[in-house]
Amino acid sequence: MATDKGGRAGGASPGMDADRFEALLEQRFRGVDRRAMAGEIRNHDARRDDAFDVGHVRRRIRFHGQIAAPVQTMLRDWVPELLAHAAGQGVRLRDLNHELNIYTPPAYEQARGRPLPPGMRLPATADRFLAQAKVYSVTLVLPRAVRSAEEVLGAIRALLARLLCEIWLRDEVFTLEAYREEAPQPMSLGLPEMLRLLAEEPLSTRRIAQALETHARAIGLNPRRAAKQVRASYFGTLLEAARKNALSADEQALVREAMDTYLAALSAQVPQRVAAMVEAVETLNAQLGFLPPDEAPEYLALREKNPLHYLRSAKLRLEFLLEALGALLEHVDQLGADDLVLSPLLEQRVEGYLAELRAQRLARPYLLEGVRLSDELAQQREAFPLEVHALLQRLPRTEHPERAFKSLSRKIANSIYQRLYGSLVLVQAWIKARDQGTAQTFVASERFTRLKAALANFRFRRPLLEALFLRLGVVLDAAEAQGPTDTGASRKLRLPRDELTRAWSGFLPHVLLVSFFADGTRLPKFDAARYRRRVVASLARQAAAGQGAARLTTLLHHVYAGAEDEGLAPLLEQLRSPTGTWRFVVQQALAPPAGARPIDVPKRGPGEAPAEDEDDGLQRLHALADVLLRARTSSQRNAIVIGKRATTAP
What is the per-residue pLDDT for 7? Predict the structure, then answer.
């Protein structure tokens, strides 16, 4: 096929290329297609040129002692195939040359020249790194008598836990930067962030005082009477220069010196700064309501028990809100441009934010003004007072409950999330009007006037939110770097390697066995549903007793079950690139519930509801799994930056 000088196929216009590109993006990022293709992607990965060499692994397995032939056959066949099965799901050993030595207890004792430790539970595994060959020698000691397939599966689980949990995590995950347990690194901020922070903080050095006085004279203000205005104007001028790469060397030195002074003072007063930030969050939240009223009881408890967790939660809310506001303002600017080529992804992204606001109950569609409601939404609107009353029962009692009721109703109906939701609905209507060629009618309507008023308010409030978000980040980093303080703070939410290893070892082998034997061809009598039910029930008993590793393992099972067709993908993403939500969820899962006691958790089938008296802590693990999956879905849905201007072909 002939091509032009630009490499395009002959006869294909730029418009056609753009349409094809848009269609490709739409297909690639549509959530339902991504889930439907998950199995195909895994199959493709399993068929790659460097496909898992089952035969090579089989040749690396060596048996020692009198092991029954059927047991040898099952181990020799199933272990390599299970490793290949895991590789197809993303858990792939770095090297296939690891030596796998399987011993009977007498053979192991003879080879080592000493008896097994008394009370040692079998099967047992160990590994040793062979420095010359750069592989591991893995040892599996079988039980003294292997009489059933179930005992063989127990041995396979132990071997998989060693290979795909301890060794795989050690080589592929714990070598990543997120898991390094080095001394805390100094905070790193760019010049724009430093300038925005210094504009807010009443910090003064000799050079800053001189610069502010000079700037005040230049703009005709008194540096003492109008200190805030002078400071904001001066650092605002430097920020504009920094964006144009026009800051002089002296100005950069002044900023860095001031920032060093600020960080030193912050490190010396972390508890006081944390308390000040809690107050700042409360003050701005009273104005804007960025902490959802529905979650007020949880925030109140968190503020009292752990101020740092409270600030982290506020920071996460601000992060989502700023992201959504930025997208809204960006889309409005794009829609206002006459030469914009509308992408089908634009409406999908707007719908993504609307869906996220609904899913997290940050906004209520039935509270929108000036819209026609369906019968269902009309009923929900009529039931809104009951909803507010139920929420009020969870809050501290007041002397005037009727005033508290009206205040809470007003906060929910006029929260920044509710206004954001209404603005996104109007943007959606604007997109539809442009598609239908009636954009001018929409722009001349009362709905557009309401949208402009909301946008003006958002543009005014956005700098306040950004300033608080920046200060929260700096104070949290300082608190985490310093370690425990009298505020109940702790170091940065580091990922506990030992607990993660134990939890992954208690999760992955069971999951692989269930999916591997589920078809009934290799082990016809294997009941996958019954096996999984037994595993989950056993974990539930341990988790209810407050065992941290069991709680974390239970959480992994819940995330895996909630991911449906995506399999291990969400967990592998979090292990390799841990998010703040993942760190928080792991820490919360490891914390035992208050008043934990051993209870008998009854066995129940998949999908069955828990008993009413089942430990609330187990339900909390379900909630934590939902939080993680929702955060991941939100991140994926809103990660695409879209919209382009039409260009004239040369």
Answer: 41
Are the C-beta atoms of residues 552 and 500 closer than 8 Å to each other? Answer: yes
Pick out the chain residues at pLDDT < 70.
Answer: 1-51, 181-188, 338-344, 481-493, 546, 592-617, 634-650
The CA distance from 598 to 590, in Å, is: 16
Q: How many CA atoms lie within 13 A of 512 on its CB side?
A: 32
Structure tokens at 489: 């703070």
Reported as a single tens digit per residue, the pLDDT across 85-139 is 999 889 999 888 899 999 999 999 888 888 888 878 889 999 998 888 888 999 9
Closest CA to 66 of 113, 34, 106: 106
| Rounded Cα–Cα distance for residues 76 and 513 (Å) | 15
Q: Are strands 135-141 and 99-103 parallel, antiparallel or unpaired?
A: parallel
Eight-state DSSP code of residue 127: E
Distance between CA atoms of residues 615 and 329, nearest Å: 45
In this predicted structure, what is the pLDDT of residue 43?
54
Phi-psi region of 397 (alpha: psi -120 to 50; beta: other; left: phi over 0): beta
- As given in the structure block, the two tokens for residue 80 are 């390599």
Residue 128: phi, psi to the nearest 5?
-140, 130
Beta-carbon contacts of 70 under 8 Å, excluding residues fewer than 6 positions away, are none
User: Collapsing DSSP states into helix, strand and coil, what is residue 402?
Assistant: helix
Taking each helix axis as running N to C, give the angle between helix 548-563 and helix 616-637, from 0 to 180 degrees, rounded to the nearest 10: 50
In this predicted structure, what is the pLDDT of residue 51? 66
Picking from 444, 503, 453, the residue whose alpha carbon sits closest to that of residue 621 is: 503
- pTM more than 0.70: no
* Residue pair 644/343 in contact by the 8 Å Cβ criterion: yes
